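Tokens for Neutral/alkaline non-lysosomal ceramidase. Go.
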Amino acid sequence: MKWLTCFILALLPLSASAQPWQAGSARISITPDEPIWMAGYGGRDHPAEGKLTDLWAKSLVLQDAAGHTAVLITLDLVGIHRDTATKICDQIGKKHNLSRDQIAINCSHTHTGPAVGANLGPLHYVQVPEEQKQQLDDYEQQLVEKIVSIVDSSFESLQPSWLTWGNGRCSVAVNRRDNVQNDVPALRVQGKLNGPSDHDVPVLLVRDADQKLRTVVFGYACHATVLGIYQWSGDYPGYAQIEVEERYPEAIAMFWAGCGADQNPLPRRTIELAQQYGKRLGTAVAEVVEGFVHPVESSLQTSYTELDLPLVDVPTVEEVIQTRETTKNKFERGRAEYILGRLGNAKTLDETYPYPVASWKIGNDIRMVFLGGEVVVDYALRLKSTAAGTPDDSPTMIWVAGYSNDVMAYIPSRRVLNEGGYEGGGSNVYYGIPGLWSEKIENMIAGEVAKQLAAPKPQPAETSSK
């Protein structure tokens, strides 16, 4: 089917042919060199014991015909805190003259990667033995340096490129709130799985001037929780990237996590299942590569803002101190220590959180949204049901990434918030969030996304004809 892609590229308008994209990508291993503490599960009681697969940081730099630039960074990590993201973006921005809206960082949310900085602080950092905390600090510093280095390499490798996109399907994800794990195999056979899911597999392809495939960017909305072992692993997203890169050896495969906070790969807990799910997802990507794809016009527009999302039931400082001194729950105590450790000279706790919302308009067709936190699937389904600010005759796709720029907590929809449970608020303990989210947050986030996607393209400055 490769002839079909070449045929489609030949149909690009002359203006696009004369001014193609510039693109460059790079990757670097971020597998820890020593056995440090792992991320994702509170039941762990010792550091990693070995490696199943490498962990990777990867970057793609895109530059349109007008010179507007954006950097996508994907990480085989459970998440990063805004502190770490700020260090990364400040250094990249300074070196390459980029503003915050031009940089997006997404984490695959693998639960067999290392703990990083303040991310999930009460779950990891405050539970780690003192002698091992310096190892985590050193790893975070090395991580920032490595990410900046691959972005440098991506800029150095910029070359004329063609972009195309397509959309695949993969049915690995299961709504974990509405299906009992042990019942899933039978329910799947009977066609009776319950609850919303998002089985889309968005794919962005980057080919060089000779139409050789150089970068494959793809997403999926499902937790990377097949494995809970003490070995480094990218989980099923890692195996999916391996599958794609084995099929296309000259290309770098980059995975971004969608709104899969309430979605699990079920059944799970074996290496064989992680490999199987990765192969299924990788095959869905390959079907797009070998099938019908859409050309991407050379235009790029980026937006970024931080919303003050409101919290409710926020305690006083005195109440947090009392919890630290009296609770027998180690995670409640960990949250109290985490909050007090970050309080500084403040006398009260913040009742809002600076929540990152970003979006990129890539060509006429792609609207990519980047949301912070562990976002439940309701957001993707809601946002993808609209096509705000896009031409009526365009095959517009809205791609919604969670786990982007700051993984500070679960982000429940109003439905999930009212239902309660782990995603509805119980998980806030492990992230150090002092209260529960307000019912207002879903409409606030959706409203900001609609605003960004409807924003008109900036007009170029007038130049003198003299």
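The longest strand covers residues 300-312.
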